[in-house]
Please model this.
Amino acid sequence: MKKVCYILILIILFSSVHVSSRPSQELFLTYGIYYGQATDIKMRNRNWSQFDLMILHPGIPQTDYKNLDDPAFLIMMQTMRDAGVEIYLYQDIGCEKDSGGLYYSQTEREDWIKFKKREINLFMRYADGIFFDCIGPAYGGHTYSEQFGRDVQELVDHAHYSGGKVIVSNLWMLMDWVESGNLDLIPYEAEYVLLEGAWSMTPHQYSDDWDPLSAIFFARSNNLKILGLDFGEEEDRERFMYCYCASRVFGFSGFYYAEDLYEPVNELDVPFLGAPLGDYVPENGSYTREFRKGTVYVNFQAHKGWIEGEAAAEEASASAILVLAGILLGLYQVRKAEKATKDHT
Model:
């Protein structure tokens, strides 16, 4: 039994080194979003080093942003930062859902701007950047004037003056300004733009009713870096690979896949592809793109994505190691239970 235990430890250590020693994804970011609290036990003892950045919710104005007063939440943030993760804090811009806050549609714009700048000043004491949610000409029944877009850019500038970076959401909403010809309202100086539901709108609905490619082409033509956000169950590997491969083929800057943003973040087992060797190529109804360690394929009609080459072989090897570790762990637990029963009798 001791021998099994030693072998199990060696396998787990080897697989951990294999995963954690992977080099950077050549400017492709793996990120996460979590709007819950630090009390969830599933958020403990996580391998945060697999993430490049994390979007967290500070709490709402009505409760004085209680997460920022929670020692456990602050420790969690520091643990992430120690692992090399950049922290972004959520800010409600156009959603108008944060209780206790000021809403643009119900407030003098000068007062609203001052309030949001005070929030940014507070958040930047704890974070590396701000996540601006619900940016666009309309959201939740509210229609915003062109001045709203200019005021958002002022907030983006303020975050930069405060030493922070900015992610804006959502590219789908920004496209409404594009279609109306108001390109000057797009916050071009933001570091990233979030494309929510790029390929999968819900865990059970693909984004076939939308046109992601038009949004992607617009973003690329205006040098906007896209962070893709797709929804699916963690065990739905087929949906995960479709969303991941589509994101890589079309040059997204980052990727996250989750069932619910209030649930503990998924640990994303993404293959290491290295740098892209060229742009995407249409091929027999699919799209392909060559990377240094493999070729990525995506078929939109079949909702399939797959990888061929060295990266695929490495992923299979890592999966086999974890399966073997699971088998040995099961054997160890069985033998331990048998010994306990024998000693008891």
Notes: Confidence is low (pLDDT under 50) at residues 2-25, 316-326. The chain has two domains: 1-24+271-345, 26-269. Helices lie at 2-20, 71-82, 109-123, 146-161, 171-179, 212-221, 237-249, 310-344. The radius of gyration is 23 Å.
